[in-house]
TrEMBL record:
Domain F-box: 17-64
Name the UniProt record assigns to this protein: Feminization of germline protein
InterPro entries on file: DUF38/FTH_CAE_spp (IPR002900), F-box-like_dom_sf (IPR036047), F-box_dom (IPR001810), FB224 (IPR040161)
Natural source organism: Caenorhabditis elegans
SUPFAM superfamilies membership: F-box domain
Length: 312
């Protein structure tokens, strides 16, 4: 009896504590579920088993923001400002330094390659379902970002996000990103575009555009888009050079009578023509231009400088 007990105790000393490879999968999943989203990017590099578990686990966040600035890039997995992963260029040698809180590590990848590799891990998770994906870019970085998302899509993966915001993107790259979002899942499109050349006709023919519910375009004037291409949206924020009477009539008869319409904010560079407002509301009087006026179920407001029209 005593000899058997001694043998068992000796065996326990030799074997030591259980490793991850010895743990039941259910236990490993529970452990991974308690690891914060940022740390999972590091933990998945420990071993294949942990990588497979993390890649098969709900990522645990609904928000991603990527800042692809020239000298330092950042990745947020929460809309709370602190805690981002920072990827900065090394000044004296190639590669970059990756930092988060008090920890840092120098790697051989460029800052852009490093952040996009980490982002690929996130996007390739089949259970990823985002509420908001924000990308702030420079002209040089936006091109590489579009190439990156195109490579992701070639493996059969489309980006699942309800809202996408593209900040400082050329129009051709706006098209490149939107075309790789999941149509129908994408509801809210927002972009700041500093050029107006090309691709807008292709954007408005995307299924992602046609099936979205909200549009906010900043920076560019939407004079090359027929006004009716906005009428399927519930929420509209755009800039026009001018609003014609014929387009105002379309807004009155089509957009405002649709069951899904909620609001429209239209900035008009050349100002709001009183004839346009009379087309919407025959009772409009220019002396009342600064006061809200009603038509049907909607209220209209004009800004003090008379270049903003709000349909609420």
């Amino acid at each position: 009896m005593s000899e058997n007990l001694t043998d068992e105790l000796d065996l326990m000393k030799i074997s030591g504590p259980p490793s991850f490879s010895d743990m039941p999968m259910e236990t490993v999943y529970k452990i991974v579920g308690k690891v914060d989203p940022y740390s999972r990017l590091a933990v998945r590099k420990v071993c294949r088993k942990l990588r497979n578990v993390i890649d098969d686990t709900d990522p645990g966040f609904k928000y991603v923001k990527v800042d692809l600035s020239r000298y330092a890039s950042r990745l947020w997995l929460t809309n709370i400002g602190r805690g981002a992963i920072c990827y900065s260029r090394n000044s004296n040698d190639p590669g970059c330094t990756v930092r988060r809180t008090s920890q840092s590590k120098s790697i051989e990848k460029t800052q852009l390659d490093a952040i996009l590799d980490d982002l690929a891990v996130i996007v390739k998770n089949p259970k990823l379902r985002l509420d908001n994906f924000v990308i702030v870019s420079s002209h040089e970085a936006s091109k590489q970002f579009v190439e990156w998302i195109r490579d992701i899509a070639q493996s059969g993966i489309l980006l699942h996000t309800k809202k996408i915001k593209l900040d400082i993107f050329p129009l051709k790259d706006v098209f490149g990103v939107l075309s790789h979002c999941k149509p129908g899942f994408l509801e809210d499109i927002e972009f700041y575009c500093y050029d107006s050349a090309g691709k807008m006709d292709e954007i408005i023919n995307l299924e992602q555009w046609k099936r979205a519910k909200s549009i906010n375009i900043e920076g560019r004037v939407c004079e090359d888009i027929p006004i009716e291409h906005f009428f399927h949206f519930s929420r509209i924020t755009i800039k026009l050079r001018k609003l014609s009477v014929s387009d105002a009539i379309k807004i009155r008869d089509d957009l405002m009578k649709s069951a899904h319409f909620e609001y429209a904010y239209i900035k008009i560079i050349e100002g709001v023509d009183p004839d346009v407002l009379r087309a919407i509301n025959p009772n409009y009087h220019p002396y009342d231009a600064l006061d809200p006026f009603e038509h049907g179920n909607y209220t209209f407001r004009i800004s003090s400088d008379k270049d903003d029209l709000a349909l609420l």
